[in-house]
Amino acid sequence: MREIGIGVLSSIFFAVTFILNRSMELSGGSWLWSSSLRFFFMLPFLLAIVYYRKGFQPIKKEVRQQTVPIFLWSIVAFVLFYAPLTYAAAFSPGWLVAGTWQLTIVAGVLLTPFFMLIIQTEHGIRKVRHKIPLVSLSITFIILIGVVLIQIPHAQTVTGKTLLFGVLPIVFAAFAYPLGNRKMMELLGGRLDTFQRVLMMTMMTIPIWVVIAVIALITVGPPSLSQLIQSFIVGVSSGVIATTLFFMATDRVRNDQGKLAAVEATQSTQLIFVILGEMSILGIALPTPIALIGIVIIIIGMSLHSFHAAYGHSNMIFNKQKS
Fold first, then answer.
1. Which Pfam families match (predicted)?
2. Where do the H-state alpha helices sit in the chain?
3. pTM over 0.70
């Protein structure tokens, strides 16, 4: 399935977030600047892309008609996702942040019953609550086994403070991101393309990021040149490229909960790219044999997701034609 390939590609660019956020924290940068600067740097790129593609009129129309829910779910998807993620980087190494973040692939599946499927029948429109795709959930747990194996060699170094301030915020973010993303897709119903949706959500949250930036300026002073440069890289790589690719992939399968779970599971590959990135940039050690086994299991799990998304869909069509 092409959407899984797009999801894996997005995870490569997302990995930059975990590596550089940790790098900025190690060099004395504040998480307040790391979180807000990303969205400030995203904005001009998104404005230019949307202006030259389809313009702003569709965005204005949606915001006028659904101002409050769009603002709400933009905050859930962006602010309640990224602020806790950068905060956790102050207490946790990149591998732990990226590893805990993989809970989002389970969160996405578990959130399925919170969404409704609209069906047009001869008696009118009927809303049916989605059911948890059990096959997708089973494959997701296989991927999580791989994630756990990667984490085991580092478990002895995790303190109580790290668990409280470096893990719990990520657990919160792991549920906020898929919830906000799915709710926004449900709200818009495909009326905006991916670039327009990301721009709209970014603009809706800019007031929050301005407040966070003001707090940073008062409490820790202006960001360093190094943090500005690294935040710019994160903004372009993770904020513009990765977010757009991931939203593009989820938009294309938004009506199929099994495929949507498969696309969200591609984010598990981030952990592999983060480990490789931290090895080359931050000088962490080569993964242990048990961690390498975990990486192999993640790859197997992703392959199963791809097979199920392709074969399961084809089999469903065959059964419908047969009946």
1. EmrE
2. 2-26, 31-53, 57-65, 67-74, 80-88, 94-101, 103-110, 134-151, 160-161, 168-188, 194-219, 225-234, 243-252, 257-265, 270-281, 289-307, 313-322
3. yes
DSSP sequence for 208-239: HHHHHHHHHHHHT-SPPHHHHHHHHHHIIIII
DSSP state of 66: S
Surface-to-core class of residue 140, CB atoms within 10 Å of its CB (0-12 exposed, 13-18 middle, 19+ buried) = buried
What share of the chain has pLDDT > 90, as a percent?
Answer: 25
What is residue 128's three-state secondary structure?
A: strand
Residue 56 binned pLDDT confidence (cut-offs 50, 70, 90): very high
- Tokens describing residue 9: 């590609």
* Whole-angstrom distance, CA of residue 85 vs CA of residue 162: 13
Tokens (6 digits) for 201 = 């959500």
Are 112 and 100 contacting, i.e. CB atoms less than 8 angstroms apart? no
**Which residue in 281, 287, 277 sits closest to 11, CA to CA?**
277
